[in-house]
Amino acid sequence: QPSSWSQSVTWNNKPQFGSLLSSTNFVPGYSKISFDLTGYVNGNGVYSFGLNTTLSNNTGILLYSREAAVGSSFKPILQIKQS
């Protein structure tokens, strides 16, 4: 659903997760994964999607931001395809 939060998110003011839209099993390290969100974006607006792990030891996700000092192949990519 459309969202209104900004990039000033901290642990204390983070948005809550909504409904599960997709999931994946184990992904080897340094792998790329894709999620097709076509069915969830149904008009103009700002949309928010979160990534979460169900591992009890909190060691399930390592993500880099667009500002990360790593090679471009590790930074997140948003691809929008018009049908």
Entry keywords:
83 residues; 0% helix; single chain; little secondary structure
How would you describe what is shown here?
With 83 residues, this protein is largely without helices or strands. 0% of the residues lie in helices and 0% in strands. The two termini are 21 Å apart.
How does the SSE layout of this entry go?
Elements: no helix or strand
Mean pLDDT across residues: 75
**What's the helix count?**
0
What Rg do the Cα atoms give?
A: 14 Å
Globally, the shape reads globular
Helix content: under 10%
Low-confidence stretches: none
**Ends: how far apart?**
21 Å
Q: Work out the number of β strands.
A: 0
- Biggest sheet: strands, sense, closure? none
Structural class: little secondary structure
Strand fraction equals under 5%
Summarize the structure.
The protein has 83 residues and is low in regular secondary structure.
